[in-house]
């Protein structure tokens, strides 16, 4: 029985510059932030990032690690615009492959199913076709003869996701209301790293949860990282909600280079325990 | 209603066929409350489908519709749950009747059993909508949300729009990045694009608009009381079709006003989106 547990440093230590990396969660919800923070401490860059974008995209964009972004949006949910993403786009910091939310899902599905594309009724007539010259259409071979967009497979070198619980073999469980697309990210990737709030015995996974909460199967997992608070400051229900005051501070750090430097000095210059300690201090100062 | 004509010169003449004297005794309804009722009307006769409102006023509209004339609508809590009761904004539901995580929501769009009301940073006379970016897409002057689900929404289920602040910066001659597909673009793209394409309504703080014209361009359907045709034209950056007679938007009745004020929005969040 293989033990896939590793540290966040070991997990991101397997990433290389130039890779295509998928990041799970949605917006500012259950993002593998501890893995992203660990990634920021490496010199890995030139990444193609594939994400239903939130502060994962914002942090990597602000740090200049993204060569190309594949996304339908980037948002902080309670703050509609991701300010580091918008700033990076406005200075032309990276290439964007802008897809629709549904196209993105079918692109991941195609990759997981080892298909070159899947047909969708989307994007026709929109400027998504104009800004994505690689998109092709496909005509139904049946009598209807309808034309669809052939969404290309979004195959990934690596996937990073964060769930509530996992066992040491990589079976991973979500306990909140939405699985997002984390299983698809893992299936679409050559390697997948699952961080979690807590590693538990396999036998304990279903002690107080239904079998359908077992979202990710170990056959699709390369490494398991236990990192409590690993989605902070995004939500990880039911373990914790989004840290709204901290998210506001993060958003304000996009105002100017000075503010961003102060934020990184305070929160992102050390390791994960240092980050969590700085967050605790941040909240103590507010009370 | 007489045949529509375009480029109507601005006029100070108030609209005719205004509500008669027997209109409900609800003339203290605020502009925001008229907007809520106008949004609710978008889901009248929609049947057993998902109403997907985006923004405060559309959310109130969808909930009001379900509590009154569209009881079969499905509604979410804004996350992954279908709510069985119809609570106030921000309040948790007492009953959950279903599960709709993002993966199912995106797939449900293609079933057509949904009418979404999206926002629009820009919208043009053909109904093309933009929420992606302002300026040149390659390096925008202002990056916005991204296209989100607008391209798939507009080709698969009825898509209406809500604009809380009607201005020439929103109602533009040409949008910078077509996210939601309008009528002319859909027609150019062919039968697969037009098959399920429909933009029933655009609702703003000034009035209600539709595309019920021969060339499927935007038409003023009704004015909210207190708004003139001239005011709408000044706030619109393209030539709007204005029928010879423009009715006023229907007033909320007494029961609707009670539901909005006491049940759905006791905190008056609607006034933050549409100030009195």
Task: Spell out the blueprint of helices and strands.
The complex is a heterodimer of chains A (287) and B (276).
Chain A lengths: L7 H5 L7 E4 L9 H8 L6 E5 L3 H8 L3 E6 L11 H8 L4 E4 L2 H12 L4 E4 L7 H4 L4 E4 L7 E6 L3 E11 L5 E2 L8 H6 L1 E11 L14 E3 L6 E4 L17 H9 L4 H11 L4 H15 L1
Parallel strand pairs in A: 1-2, 1-8, 2-3, 3-4, 8-10, 10-12
Antiparallel strand pairs in A: 5-7, 6-7, 8-9, 9-11
Helix pairs in contact in A: 2-3, 3-4
Chain B lengths: L30 H12 L7 E4 L2 H12 L13 E3 L12 E4 L2 H8 L4 E6 L2 E2 L5 E2 L2 E2 L7 E2 L6 H7 L2 E5 L19 H7 L1 H4 L7 E3 L2 E4 L8 E5 L5 H6 L19 H11 L5 H4 L3
Parallel strand pairs in B: 1-4, 4-9, 9-10
Antiparallel strand pairs in B: 2-3, 5-6, 7-8, 10-11, 11-12
Helix pairs in contact in B: 1-2, 2-8
Characteristics:
heterodimer, A: 287 residues, alpha/beta, Glutaconate Coenzyme A-transferase, nine-stranded mixed beta sheet, three-stranded antiparallel beta sheet, 30% helix, globular, B: 276 residues, six-stranded mixed beta sheet, 12 strands, disordered N terminus
Structure characterization notes:
The complex is a heterodimer of chains A (287) and B (276). Chain A has 287 residues and is an alpha/beta fold. Chain A has a domain at 8-99 and 154-242: Glutaconate Coenzyme A-transferase, CATH 3.40.1080.10. Helices cover 30% and strands 22% of the residues of chain A. Chain A has ten helices and twelve strands. In chain A, strands 1, 2, 3, 4, 8, 9, 10, 11 and 12 form a nine-stranded mixed beta sheet that branches. A three-stranded antiparallel beta sheet of chain A has the order 5-7-6. In chain A, α2 (33-40) packs parallel to α3 (55-62). Chain A is globular. With 276 residues, chain B is of the alpha/beta class. Chain B has a single domain (31-267), classed as Glutaconate Coenzyme A-transferase (3-Layer(aba) Sandwich). Chain B is 26% helix and 15% strand. Chain B contains nine helices and twelve strands. Chain B has helices at 31-42, 56-67, 102-109, 150-156, 183-189, 191-194, 229-234, 254-264, 270-273, and strands spanning 50-53, 81-83, 96-99, 114-119, 122-123, 129-130, 133-134, 142-143, 159-163, 202-204, 207-210, 219-223. Chain B has a six-stranded mixed beta sheet. In chain B, strands 2-3 form a two-stranded antiparallel sheet. In chain B, β10 and β11 (207-210) form a beta hairpin. In chain B, α1 packs across α2 (56-67) and α2 packs across α8. Chain B is globular. The two termini of chain B are 30 Å apart. The model of chain B is unreliable at 1-25 (pLDDT under 50). Chain A: Keywords: Transferase. Chain A: One of its GO terms (molecular function) is CoA-transferase activity. Chain A: Pfam families: CoA_trans (PF01144). Chain A: InterPro entries: CoA_trans_fam_I, NagB/RpiA_transferase-like. Chain A: This is CoA-transferase.
